[in-house]
Structures are given as C-alpha cells and as structure tokens.
C-alpha cells in the first residue's frame, strides 16, 4: 500500500483524499518512510520535517472529517526548495553562511502552501544560493540522480527534482533563474515549469538575481504542475514586480490537452552543435508526435539567442553580488572571527565570515558581478547585457507573432557524472543555454520528459516556451504531448526508472 | 592629528573665492517606512520598529510607500523642480554595519524631482540657489558605540545597532554650485537651510527638526584662487545640526582651506564632522575618487511614474511659499521691515498669526510675543512655543485687558498662573483675585489717603502741575496691589484736586 501511495500523482492523491479512500496521514507517512529508505542514496533533502508534515496531515484529515471545504490539494505532501523562507523551519540556501538559520516569517509561496493545507515534508537540496547547474555546489554535499546515482540531477533545483523523481514527494517547489527548474526536470524525467516572471510572488525567495528569479512547480505530470501552479500564483502586494493580472487558467488548459491547429516553432539556434545526438533524436520524435496530433510545426530563428548566455552571465552575477551583500554576519547567519586578530574591526569580521560562509562558485559570481557593475565597466558589461535583453525580447515577440509556442530540447545533454564539470565552470554554464533566454525576457517555460537517450538510457526533456502571461499555452501543448507519449510507453517515463535500493 | 594654520576669514577672502554646494537630508514624517509597513515614530525602544524587509532578512522584498512619493513630489514642486514622468530607484552598494542590506535603496541618475530653485534673502538682498535634484532614498540604522570616552567607534568596547531608523524615507535636496559674493557665503548658506526648513515645514511632510536629525545639512566647500576658474578640492562637512552651525562651518572651512593652500598644501577630499563646542571641523572618513558604489537600477522595485494629473493636483494644493506669505503678513499687519525681521528671528511668526487669528491686533500680539514671552523664553532657555502658553490664551488675556478687567501689569501675573498650570486666564484672574477695581467708592477712599499722605504733591497738582499726578497714582496702585484702574484713579485725583 505505501509503495502505491508514493507513486501516485498529486491529482490521484487529491481525488483519493477527497473520496476519503486514504488519509493524509497515511500518504504523508508513506512518503516520510520512503524518504527514510532512499534519501541516503539520493540526498534530495537538507531538512526533513516528518513531525510537522504529519501534524498538518492530521489537521487536514480532521478538518475533512468535519466536512470543512478544503482546497483541492489539501493533504497532498510537498517538498520545498531550501531557497524559500519557511517560518520555524531551517532555511540555508545550500550555504554554510545560513547554517542553522530559522526564518521568523514565511515566503508568500510557503504561506500559500500552508494555507492550502499541504504538509511540507522538508527542504530540498540545491546549489548554494541557486548558483550552479548540477547541485554539486551545495555546501551540504551533492544530490544524486535517481536514474543513476553516480550522476548529477541537474541544478540548482536538483533536490526538488530528485525528490519527485525518487518518489519521495509528489510535488515540489523549485526556483528558476536560468533554468534551475527546467534543466533538472529534464535530467530527472520530471515536469518543471518556470511561470511568467512576476506570475508567482518572489517575496521570501532568497534572491540570486532579482530580475530573473521565478518560483515554480516540479511534478511528475503536467496536470499536477498546473494544479500547483494555480495554487502558488497570483498577485502579491508584497512583491512590487508581481503581475496584477488574473492567473492564467492553467489547470483547464492542462485538462484540454489539444494541439490540433496549434502553431509550434522549433528554435533553430537551440539545437545542432553542442546538443547530444540522443537528446536531439528524442526531441525530433516528440515533435513528430505533435505533428501527428494536428499541430503545425515550423522552424523559426531567434538570432540574438547567441548573446543570451553572455548577457545572462553579466546580469545574474551583477544582481547576485548586490543581493548577497546582506550576508555580513551582523544580523543572522554564521559569524566567523578572523584568525589571529585580537581586536577585529566590523569589516574584518564581515570579510572572514563571508570567506568561511560562501563557497567557491558564490565567490566567483560575486567577484564577476562586482567587476561588471564597477564604474568604468558598467556600460560595457551590465549596460550591454540589458540591451541584449531588450533585443532578445523583441526577437521573441517577432517569433510569437508567427507561432503559438516555441520548442527546443531543454538541456543539450543528459545527466553527466558527478564531478565531471566541477572544475570547468564555463562548460557547466553551457548546460543552461536553452533555458536562459526565457529568464532574460520573462516568458514562461515548461520542460516535459520525452524519453530516454539511446546512448545512455537517461531522461531527455523537451522545453515549451510561450509569450508572457500565456502560461496556459504551455500546459495545453505539454499535456497533449504527455498523453501521446504515455500511450506510446504505456505509462509515465518515471515508471521506467530503476528501483532504488533502500539504504537503511 | 596635525594642527592646522587657520587664515582669518576676511583675509582668506582677499585671495580666494569660496564655492559651495549644500545637501539637505529630510526625513519624511510618513506613518510608515519607505519600503515596508513599519512605524516611524521617533524615540521608540531600539529595534522595536523592524520587520523582515527593513532588517533585510533573506528573501524579503521592498515595496514603495506611495505616501512618501507624494511627499517627494510636493517637496519637488515647492522647490520649483520638474517632476520626472518616469523614474527608478537604484542600489548604492557599500558595506556598513548599520545598513541592513549593505546597499542603500536610493535614486541615482533618475531622481523624482530635478532642475529647481529657491530665492533666499540676506540683508535685504535676494540670492537664487539652483537646485540640481531632490531624490528619494531610505535612511540607515544607527550605530551606538559603547565604552571609550568619545562615543566614536575607535576605543569603544562594543557597538550596538538600532535598526528602527533603517528604512525611514528621506529626501535629499542637492544644490548646484553656489557662488555668491564671498563675504556673503556663510550667511547665504544659513539662509538657504533656514528657508528650506520653513518651506518643507509649511508642507507638513516632515518635522524638520534639526535637533532630532529629521533635517540634516551637509556643507561641501572648496576654494579657488581669485581669478582662477578651476575648482579646488572640496571637503564635505556632514550632519551640521543647526542654522548657526551651518554658517560657522562655512566660515571655518574657508579659513582652514585657505591655511592649507597658503602653506602650499593640498586640500584632502574627505568627510568632516562639525564640532559644536569649538566651531571647528574634524577629519572623518577620507573619501577618494576610488569610492565605487556600483549603482544599478533596483530590480526589486517597479519604476515610479506619477501621472501628470496627480502632479497637477498636488501642485494646486501647495501652500503659499514662505517669502510670499511673509510679504503678505507684513502688509496685512503693517509691520516695519525691522519688526518683521525680529518676528522671524524670534520664531514668533506662526504664533503671532495664531494669536491674531484668535482675535487680537497684530500690534498687541507682537508686543506680548516679542516682549514678555521672548524675555521668559530667554530666561528659561526654552523656545517660544514651548513656554506652556498658547496663542489663544495670549489672545484671551489681551481681551481681558481690552475689557479693562485687568491691566498690563496684572496680565503678567495671569501669564504666570497660566504657565504654572493654574487654569485658563479667566480662572487665574478669579483665583488670584487680579481683577481691576474701578468702583469709585473704594478708589475714592484710597485717593483721599494718598492725597493726605503726600500734601506736597497735592499742592503742586492744585497749582496746575498735573505731571505730578503720577506719584499719587503710583501710591494708590501700590495700596491696591496694582489692581486699580489707573485711568479712573487719575480722573479721581484730578477731580478732587481741581
């Protein structure tokens, strides 16, 4: 029974819960047990709150028994990336500098999850301050890919993706600054969505790059993603960049799942050289499935995409260098006195604390960003990057004038072995080449698992992109493709994943 | 610390021309902070007015206080500035323990208000001060250094930080270069700060209290040799906290710079602190051109784009500018230039306005506030508006005089009583039995006794020398403890001795 429960989708669980076929405590306990059994091999979680999750579950069961009106997902457990503030629960951002910090407040996303009655299983592992594409930059050790535990799960949201892929949680929250939801989604065979920038509140999301960060769902199905998307989205007066418009009807779009007459554009620049043949093959087959279902597929060009990676690696570290300045050991976080100094100044304490508290990738980006913003270089770097964003947005607008959605492989490669690119940051940065443009222009993107690469048997993701605020188009198209694929496979891709051996 | 040779002010001006720039920081009196909902009350227990946003807890985000934007626009309009149709906040990045985010959210190249001016008057001469910009920003927290003798960070045992002030909305008003006749520079600087205080005070958007730090002035000053057009290196004297100090700081810096330049030295670009007790400035942080704040547009905040309709609405509700108001009041009241200067100098303008509003003549109001009240303020070291008596009460007392129920002398006792908290003027008159006696029976008897007691005077009056009547009046008044109606007493004396 408990194995069954862990493998059910959030939608299935919600229906079972509402029909009182199963209790939230049973579901939550099953997942807590699963985490206990397999997380030693995966390390998806930095913090597990079994007690808190079970208490919420019991409360929801109680309220359901009393006949209270509950939200659709009430009682369905969820895992939250450790970059979102959770009141009373540790929040470290995968960094030593926040070791042991317990926020006194909830992020808006967390507050919405709590208000809807979803038991929070715990906080998931991530690259330190979301800087990385492999979750190897977590100060607490890497997460392993459930498909092959010698490989990375992608990053920075590797913990959230692995938790969902390893059946430790049916739902997870990730954050995506340059692909951190979609790329790990692709590498673990899960569905990952980056909503339109401003569609989900950033309040309480510890910022890496404010103008790029976006929280979103990580799930096993498109419908589950839509259900979670609707739950966390909406205008938030606490976030001045939050969109005031109504949330697009993503659940209805996921249920519609119809691509007949849909115009789909293949982005020419996101394929070919640098993309693994097995990835390209699965991508091409998926596009053929869409065509067979009545979609019209054309190739489109977005020439400025070749500048996106460069622009991203100027904007992101610039904003990060400023956002991370608050970690100065004055109000919270670890304080490390400088060695060999009797009477240290405040500045020396700040410096030694930051030296000890930040990892190498974080330091690298702070230095890059500080340089890019410094007087004399601002125009050449930050200023130029902002111009690229403007041009890129214009090019995407032009493309969306001709097609409804754009598609590309989500990641140029499948999951690579742990340690493979750790010493080559530039090679690792290339892993986000297909996902970064969406963040620079604020459009939504969704990664759907479309099969396993022939050469290594690892999951491949296909990315859908839609215009700003047209998130529903992603769900409609992805759900249609998902149905076609499941018919072909006779189930979800994840059901083909190797069984994980219990570690204790 | 090197001892600096100072060149006397007048002598310095024979060789150099001062160039000034003034920056005024004004804390707005909005109910909540610039980017969060925390209260802004002055003097609260440390760290009781803080939240995740103003403490910069990880993940917290700012949201602009619309009321602060409104205040900034009104201020900009009062300073004759243009109001930006679209502007943004920027981050000014630097590390300091009292600044929670380690960047200050400010405005950089896109201020809300720009290109304005004010006209200030010194000794009857008008000087136009050009305003470069007025921009919005947030205040920092406050560090308190405990231990050591100076209260400064050096030598302190430890430091405490109070973040209550962190995030309070500030407006910074920056002038363009001010070049006036050299000898007028200190007075013009003072007049400018004073004018801005009155202007902003009139808008009601700030308490503009220099003593509480809600108005802080920085004086930038450099000297250029006479005839030269190249600007010298400037010093920046921070947080000067009274009008008089602004004037003194300018004078001192002129003398100090001249001393350095005369000796062939170089003025260092640095922050300086004004010493209230000695009237001198002390070196603070050295500021180099290497200071790099790495400004960039604040990505967490939506741009500010006030509609033109709103700006015009705000313009329509601006109060009269201080200079216009003063000219109008002076004409209405028929005050001389000197009367007006004294009134303003004593800080009595608004008090007189209110006293007149409560039904007194301007002359009577002026007489009390600049005379009796100014004397009391002087003696007790208090401001006029802190004496414990209101304009309405002063007007009521004058009303009692006009009704001949008391006289000027008795009025002083009424002031004493009111200030001592004994009640309203009416209540004090009754309780202290201060009412003037004008009953002929009682007065007549007292007059008879006075005549009897001073036959010489009586004889002189009978002989037609009425000037001597004063002595007899004085005697009657003395007997009646000042409560006699002096006019009636005089009439009775003259009747009896005619």
UniProtKB/TrEMBL annotation, chain A:
<dbReference type="Pfam" id="PF01425">
    <property type="entry name" value="Amidase"/>
</dbReference>
<keyword id="KW-0067">ATP-binding</keyword>
<comment type="function">
    <text>Allows the formation of correctly charged Gln-tRNA(Gln) through the transamidation of misacylated Glu-tRNA(Gln) in organisms which lack glutaminyl-tRNA synthetase. The reaction takes place in the presence of glutamine and ATP through an activated gamma-phospho-Glu-tRNA(Gln).</text>
</comment>
<comment type="similarity">
    <text>Belongs to the amidase family. GatA subfamily.</text>
</comment>
<feature type="active site" description="Charge relay system">
    <location>
        <position position="81"/>
    </location>
</feature>
<dbReference type="InterPro" id="IPR036928">
    <property type="entry name" value="AS_sf"/>
</dbReference>
<protein>
    <recommendedName>
        <fullName>Glutamyl-tRNA(Gln) amidotransferase subunit A</fullName>
        <ecNumber>6.3.5.7</ecNumber>
    </recommendedName>
</protein>
<dbReference type="GO" id="GO:0030956">
    <property type="term" value="C:glutamyl-tRNA(Gln) amidotransferase complex"/>
</dbReference>
<dbReference type="GO" id="GO:0005524">
    <property type="term" value="F:ATP binding"/>
</dbReference>
<dbReference type="InterPro" id="IPR020556">
    <property type="entry name" value="Amidase_CS"/>
</dbReference>
<keyword id="KW-0436">Ligase</keyword>
<dbReference type="InterPro" id="IPR000120">
    <property type="entry name" value="Amidase"/>
</dbReference>
<keyword id="KW-0547">Nucleotide-binding</keyword>
<dbReference type="InterPro" id="IPR004412">
    <property type="entry name" value="GatA"/>
</dbReference>
<comment type="subunit">
    <text>Heterotrimer of A, B and C subunits.</text>
</comment>
<feature type="domain" description="Amidase">
    <location>
        <begin position="26"/>
        <end position="474"/>
    </location>
</feature>
<keyword id="KW-0648">Protein biosynthesis</keyword>
<feature type="active site" description="Charge relay system">
    <location>
        <position position="156"/>
    </location>
</feature>
<feature type="active site" description="Acyl-ester intermediate">
    <location>
        <position position="180"/>
    </location>
</feature>
<dbReference type="GO" id="GO:0006412">
    <property type="term" value="P:translation"/>
</dbReference>
<dbReference type="InterPro" id="IPR023631">
    <property type="entry name" value="Amidase_dom"/>
</dbReference>
<dbReference type="GO" id="GO:0050567">
    <property type="term" value="F:glutaminyl-tRNA synthase (glutamine-hydrolyzing) activity"/>
</dbReference>
From TrEMBL, chain B:
<protein>
    <recommendedName>
        <fullName>Aspartyl/glutamyl-tRNA(Asn/Gln) amidotransferase subunit B</fullName>
        <ecNumber>6.3.5.-</ecNumber>
    </recommendedName>
</protein>
<dbReference type="InterPro" id="IPR014746">
    <property type="entry name" value="Gln_synth/guanido_kin_cat_dom"/>
</dbReference>
<dbReference type="GO" id="GO:0050567">
    <property type="term" value="F:glutaminyl-tRNA synthase (glutamine-hydrolyzing) activity"/>
</dbReference>
<dbReference type="GO" id="GO:0006412">
    <property type="term" value="P:translation"/>
</dbReference>
<dbReference type="InterPro" id="IPR006075">
    <property type="entry name" value="Asn/Gln-tRNA_Trfase_suB/E_cat"/>
</dbReference>
<dbReference type="InterPro" id="IPR004413">
    <property type="entry name" value="GatB"/>
</dbReference>
<dbReference type="InterPro" id="IPR017959">
    <property type="entry name" value="Asn/Gln-tRNA_amidoTrfase_suB/E"/>
</dbReference>
<keyword id="KW-0547">Nucleotide-binding</keyword>
<feature type="domain" description="Asn/Gln amidotransferase">
    <location>
        <begin position="350"/>
        <end position="497"/>
    </location>
</feature>
<comment type="function">
    <text>Allows the formation of correctly charged Asn-tRNA(Asn) or Gln-tRNA(Gln) through the transamidation of misacylated Asp-tRNA(Asn) or Glu-tRNA(Gln) in organisms which lack either or both of asparaginyl-tRNA or glutaminyl-tRNA synthetases. The reaction takes place in the presence of glutamine and ATP through an activated phospho-Asp-tRNA(Asn) or phospho-Glu-tRNA(Gln).</text>
</comment>
<keyword id="KW-0436">Ligase</keyword>
<comment type="subunit">
    <text>Heterotrimer of A, B and C subunits.</text>
</comment>
<keyword id="KW-0067">ATP-binding</keyword>
<dbReference type="InterPro" id="IPR023168">
    <property type="entry name" value="GatB_Yqey_C_2"/>
</dbReference>
<dbReference type="Pfam" id="PF02934">
    <property type="entry name" value="GatB_N"/>
</dbReference>
<comment type="similarity">
    <text>Belongs to the GatB/GatE family. GatB subfamily.</text>
</comment>
<dbReference type="InterPro" id="IPR003789">
    <property type="entry name" value="Asn/Gln_tRNA_amidoTrase-B-like"/>
</dbReference>
<keyword id="KW-0648">Protein biosynthesis</keyword>
<dbReference type="Pfam" id="PF02637">
    <property type="entry name" value="GatB_Yqey"/>
</dbReference>
<dbReference type="GO" id="GO:0070681">
    <property type="term" value="P:glutaminyl-tRNAGln biosynthesis via transamidation"/>
</dbReference>
<dbReference type="InterPro" id="IPR018027">
    <property type="entry name" value="Asn/Gln_amidotransferase"/>
</dbReference>
<dbReference type="GO" id="GO:0005524">
    <property type="term" value="F:ATP binding"/>
</dbReference>
């Amino acid at each position: 029974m408990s194995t069954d429960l862990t493998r059910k989708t959030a939608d299935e669980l919600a229906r079972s819960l509402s029909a009182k076929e199963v209790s939230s405590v049973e579901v939550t306990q099953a997942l807590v047990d699963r985490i206990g059994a397999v997380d030693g091999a995966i390390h998806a979680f930095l913090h597990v709150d079994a007690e808190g999750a079970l208490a919420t579950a019991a409360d929801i069961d109680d309220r359901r028994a009393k006949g209270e009106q509950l939200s659709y997902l009430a009682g369905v457990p969820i895992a939250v990336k450790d970059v979102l503030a959770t009141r009373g629960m540790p929040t470290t951002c995968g960094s030593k500098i926040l070791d042991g910090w317990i926020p006194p407040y909830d992020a808006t996303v967390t507050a919405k999850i709590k208000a809807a009655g979803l038991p929070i299983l715990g906080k998931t592992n991530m690259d330190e301050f979301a800087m990385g594409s492999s979750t190897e930059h977590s100060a607490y050790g890497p997460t392993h890919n459930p498909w092959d535990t010698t490989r990375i799960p992608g990053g920075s949201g590797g913990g959230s993706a692995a938790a969902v892929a390893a059946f430790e949680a049916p739902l997870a929250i990730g954050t995506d600054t340059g692909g951190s939801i979609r790329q790990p989604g692709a590498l673990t065979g899960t569905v990952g969505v980056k909503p339109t920038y401003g569609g989900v509140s950033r309040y309480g999301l510890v910022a890496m790059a404010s103008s790029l960060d976006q929280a979103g769902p990580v799930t096993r199905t498109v419908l589950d993603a839509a259900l979670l998307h609707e739950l966390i989205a909406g205008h938030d007066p606490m976030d001045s960049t939050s969109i005031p418009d109504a949330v697009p009807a993503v659940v209805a779009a996921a249920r519609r799942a119809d691509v007949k007459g849909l115009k789909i554009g293949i982005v020419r620049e996101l394929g070919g050289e640098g993309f693994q043949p097995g990835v390209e093959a699965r991508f091409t087959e998926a596009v053929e499935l869409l065509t067979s279902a009545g979609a019209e597929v054309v190739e489109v060009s977005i020439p400025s995409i070749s500048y996106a990676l460069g622009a991203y690696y100027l904007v992101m570290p610039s904003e990060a260098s400023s956002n991370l300045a608050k970690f100065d050991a004055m109000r919270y976080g670890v304080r490390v006195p400088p060695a060999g100094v009797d009477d240290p100044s405040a500045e020396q304490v700040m410096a030694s604390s930051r030296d000890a508290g930040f990892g190498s990738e974080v330091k690298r980006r702070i230095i890059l960003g500080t340089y890019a913003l410094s007087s004399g270089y601002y125009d050449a770097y930050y200023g130029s990057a902002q111009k690229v964003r403007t041009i890129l947005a214009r090019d995407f607008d032009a493309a969306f004038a001709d097609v409804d959605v754009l598609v590309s492989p989500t990641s140029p490669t499948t999951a690579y072995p742990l340690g493979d690119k750790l010493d080559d940051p530039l090679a690792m940065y290339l892993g986000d080449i297909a996902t970064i443009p969406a963040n620079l222009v604020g459009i939504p993107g969704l990664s759907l698992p479309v099969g396993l690469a022939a050469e290594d048997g690892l999951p491949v993701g296909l990315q859908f992109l839609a215009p700003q605020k047209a998130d529903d188009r992603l769900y409609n198209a992805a759900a249609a493709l998902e149905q076609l694929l499941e018919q072909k496979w006779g189930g979800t891709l994840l059901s083909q994943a190797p069984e994980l051996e219990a570690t204790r | 610390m090197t001892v600096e040779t100072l060149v006397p002010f007048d002598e310095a001006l024979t060789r150099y021309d001062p160039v000034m720039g003034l920056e005024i920081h004004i804390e707005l009196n909005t109910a909540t902070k610039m980017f969060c909902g925390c209260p802004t009350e002055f003097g609260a227990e440390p760290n009781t007015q803080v939240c995740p946003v103003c403490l910069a807890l990880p993940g917290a985000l700012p949201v602009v206080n619309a009321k602060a934007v409104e205040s900034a626009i009104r201020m900009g309009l009062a300073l004759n500035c243009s109001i930006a149709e679209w502007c943004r906040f920027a981050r000014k990045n630097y590390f300091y323990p009292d600044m929670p985010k380690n960047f200050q959210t400010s405005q950089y190249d896109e201020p809300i208000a720009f290109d304005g001016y004010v006209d200030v008057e010194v000794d009857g001469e008008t000087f136009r001060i050009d305003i470069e910009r007025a921009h919005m920003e947030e205040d920092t927290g406050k560090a308190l250094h405990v231990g050591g003798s100076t209260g400064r960070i050096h030598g302190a045992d430890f430091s405490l930080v109070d973040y209550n002030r962190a995030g309070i909305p500030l407006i910074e008003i920056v002038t363009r270069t001010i070049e006036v006749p050299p000898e007028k520079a200190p007075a013009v600087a003072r007049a400018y700060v004073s004018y801005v205080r009155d202007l902003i005070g009139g808008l009601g958007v700030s308490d503009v209290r220099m003593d509480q730090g809600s108005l802080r002035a920085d004086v930038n000053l450099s000297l250029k040799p006479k005839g030269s057009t190249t600007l010298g290196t400037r010093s920046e004297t921070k947080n000067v906290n009274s009008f008089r100090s602004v004037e003194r700081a300018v004078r001192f810096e002129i003398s100090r710079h001249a001393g350095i330049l005369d000796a062939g030295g170089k003025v260092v670009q640095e922050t300086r602190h004004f010493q209230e007790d000695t009237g001198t400035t002390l070196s603070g942080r050295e500021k180099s051109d290497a200071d790099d704040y790495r400004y960039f547009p604040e990505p967490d905040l939506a741009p500010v784009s006030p509609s033109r309709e709103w700006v015009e609405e705000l313009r329509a509700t601006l109060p009269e500018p201080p200079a216009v108001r003063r000219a109008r009041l002076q004409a209405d009241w028929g005050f001389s230039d000197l009367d007006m200067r004294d009134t303003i100098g004593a800080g009595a303008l608004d008090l007189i306005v209110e006293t007149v509003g409560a039904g007194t003549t301007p002359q009577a109001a002026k007489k009390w506030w600049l005379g009796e009240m100014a004397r009391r303020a002087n003696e007790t070291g208090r401001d006029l508006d802190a004496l414990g008596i209101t304009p309405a009460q002063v007007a009521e007392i004058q009303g009692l005089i006009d009704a001949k129920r008391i006289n000027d002398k008795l009025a002083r006792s009424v002031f004493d009583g009111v200030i001592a908290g004994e009640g309203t003027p009416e209540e004090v008159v009754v309780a202290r039995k201060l009412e003037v006696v004008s009953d002929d029976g009682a007065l007549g008897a007292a007059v008879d006794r006075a005549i009897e007691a001073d036959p010489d005077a009586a004889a002189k009056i009978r002989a037609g020398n009425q000037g001597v009547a004063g002595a007899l009046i004085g005697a009657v008044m003395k007997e009646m403890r000042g409560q006699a109606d002096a006019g009636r007493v005089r009439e009775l004396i003259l009747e009896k001795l005619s």
